[in-house]
Amino acid sequence: xxxRRDVFQAIADPTRRQIIEKLVQKPLNVNEIAENFDxxxxxxxxxxxxxxxxxxxxxxxxxxxxYCEVKIDELNQVAEWVNFCxxxxxxxxxxxxxxxxxxxxxxxxxxxxTPQ
Length: 116
Fold this sequence. Notes:
The chain is α+β, with helices and mostly antiparallel strands. Helices cover 57% and strands 12% of the residues. The chain has a 3-stranded antiparallel beta sheet with strand order 1-3-2.
């Protein structure tokens, strides 16, 4: 049974991220995309297939050409996850900062322990 690919799997590969960056500028056909990379057209086609399966791009036929268009809204899933992690760690570090400040302010200083 084949599992559906997800957005995170798609953006894990730097070539696929670069393809998305190219398509944000304008729709391109597979040959135009392949011209931007030092890999075979077959490899680019596989990356496009993965991006399509994840819903990050759509392929539209215009005559005999197939043009790829980006569906940037699908990246909202990634943005939401990143924002969740950012907020989580911000709260964790804030809590740690408060704790360290509290520990330092309650710790007797060295010169308080010097005999007189």
